[in-house]
Design a protein that fits this description.
By secondary structure, the chain is an alpha/beta fold. 40% of the residues lie in helices and 24% in strands. The chain has helices at residues 22-30, 50-60, 75-85, 104-118, 152-157, 186-198, 215-220, 222-236, 241-259; strands at 5-15, 37-43, 64-68, 88-93, 99-100, 125-133, 139-144, 149-150, 167-169, 201-212. Strands 1, 2, 3, 4, 5, 6, 7, 8, 9 and 10 form a ten-stranded mixed β-sheet that branches. The radius of gyration is 18 Å and the shape is globular. The relative contact order is 0.14.
Length: 260
Amino acid sequence: MDRRESGLVSIVVPVYNAGAFIAETIYSVQAQTYRAWELLLVDDCSQDNSREIIRQECARDERLRLVVQEENGGTAKARNRGVQEACGQYLCFLDADDLWLPEKLETQLEQLRKIQEMMNPRAGFVFMGYEFADTSGKGLGKVVHVPEQIHYRQALKNTTIFTSTVMIDRNIIPDEDIYMPCIASEDTATWWQILKKYGAGYGIDRNLVKYRRSTATLSSNKMTAVRRIWNLYRRQERLSVAESVYCMFFWAFRAVFRRL
């Protein structure tokens, strides 16, 4: 039986030791102007007070659901568990420390439906622009803009699709194509596979998401990010060395430019 409720947005949040941020993230969802949503908070065996905070918020709002993983399995498994539990036609991902502005869901749904009506009835994947923010959630003024459309080959050179901005129509893209592989940069690998199979993804160039990252974290993750993307090119996408170098050059340029 199809459990998907028409018009309902299921929001999946993987949670691991996010006690310092998770309440604010929940509040940013509760402030959405679009009200037909459910929030699935998948606790991946947190060792801090994350689970207790979530339980308290669930008691106040029946649209919130705590999903408990029996053992720590990482972000991909937590997101996949959330997809399995989701009841909505539409699916969004939100990281436990990121924030949405109130018009995020309403704007995205409106644009997705417009694209389906006017351009492509099989459009099922949209994403948005976003702004880097500090650990307090304050925007840093650096906004990442996104193209109107992006295809697989373009996405290989431009990892501009940020997980907390994505919305998927599950009536178009089935869950088996949404489940993330248990590898590093699992989200990027998933977007590539969706684009390869379903064609274009559609960008909405509005800044309605705050990506909370510290300068120290960005600096320490540079080489790790390079290795992860390289491994995706070679192992996941099976690109040749020459193709991988070519894509990596453009990826690196855009990744640096986004952070300037």
